[in-house]
Amino acid sequence: MHKDEIADLLEEKYHTLINWLEGQDHEKWTQGPNGEWTTGQQALYLLQSIIPLNNALSMPKFLLRYRFGKTNRKARDYDTIVRLYLEHLKDAEGNTFKGSRKMKTSTLEDKTYILTRLQVESKKLQYKARKITDENLDTLLLPHPFMGKISIREILMCNAYHVEYRTKTLTENY
Asked: What is the top-level taxon of the source organism (predicted)?
């Protein structure tokens, strides 16, 4: 998938998510299915997952190469990334990423801030996806919490699917 297509995909997925969150009743922001995260916690989780990715993509590329290495294979396509993501998600069922285990409860007062930050961070990610070279997209690695080290191109596609997956969860269950 070309980097402009990835950036467009990210824009589409975040736009769908944010529109759904903005259109949801305010009372539902602090509610969720029994024993599950609230809508606000889901939104905060997505914000917490995009910020480290943006921070990593702001680092000098030689530091990423030094810290995480270079790939030794061809980049996988979007469908393969989605399939692998779902396989790893199934394997990790019941396990929550360390940083999200004790998710802060998001209040209604936090809603505007979280949604605004999600919009800003998603625009940053789209910009970075368009500006990074194809060589760096395909050769530099970044760590994914349960997929291991994957190329930047793959982690961007994975992020787009992650947002789609969470949006689907929200629309079906909240």
From this structure: Bacteria
